[in-house]
Specification:
Distance between the termini: 43 Å
Shape: elongated
Mean pLDDT: 92
Structural class: alpha+beta
Largest sheet: 5 strands, mixed
Bound molecules: zinc ion
Radius of gyration: 20 Å
Number of helices: 8
Order of helices and strands: HHHEEEEHEHEHEHH
Length: 189
């Protein structure tokens, strides 16, 4: 990203919305916004495989692993406004498990791009499958979208739920319902 170019675009944007980019409070805004944008879209230069960085361990078991309540912060590709919430990720490994923090890193890396929630959910599921060789993966995500709550219909408390299931989580109803019951129990803590 060309920081100077983005700064000048932000200055133009400020003029177009009727602001004066030279007033005191806004003088450094183009620089700050360009830096913020670079951070919020850092995922374009990261790959899930690189953030996992080899932290895949032999476990000798094939039990279901579920990581709940992982924070999600992303930008919707339709409005460039934030959507945020949390997700739950489960998988059944074939003896290979990810380091605990690595699932959250995969989520961060894929969320730090322009996204829609449905695609983000699927991309997380596929990345976990690809990194672990898991026989099945499930992801459930619940987010609020500022493009919906701050503008438009202004449904202030609406939460969008999406899910993606692969392999045995897709094919086996018992596996899927075990996952969903673990995930929904987190709502009643
Ligand atoms: Zn939107």
């Amino acid at each position: 990203m060309d920081q100077a170019r983005v700064e000048s675009l932000v200055r133009e944007l400020l003029v177009e919305i009727g602001e004066d980019p030279s007033r005191e409070g806004l003088v450094k805004t183009p620089e700050r916004m360009a830096k913020a944008l670079a951070f919020l879209t850092r995922g374009y230069s990261l790959k899930p495989h690189d953030v996992v960085n080899g932290a895949v361990f032999e476990s000798g078991s094939d039990n279901m692993v579920v990581v709940r309540d992982i924070d999600v912060y992303s930008l919707c590709e339709h409005h460039l406004l934030p959507f945020f919430g949390h997700c739950h990720v489960g998988y059944i490994s074939r003896g290979r498990v990810l380091g605990v923090s690595k699932i959250a890193r995969i989520v961060d890396c894929l969320a730090a791009r322009l996204q829609i929630q449905e695609r983000l959910t699927s991309e997380i599921a596929r990345a976990v499958r690809d990194e672990t060789g898991a026989e099945g993966v499930g992801v459930v995500m619940e987010c609020q979208h500022l493009c919906m709550t701050m503008r438009g219909v202004q449904k202030q408390n609406s939460v969008m739920s999406t899910s993606a299931v692969l392999g045995s989580f897709h094919d086996d109803a018992a596996t899927r319902s075990e996952f969903l019951s673990i995930v929904t129990s987190s709502h009643h803590r």
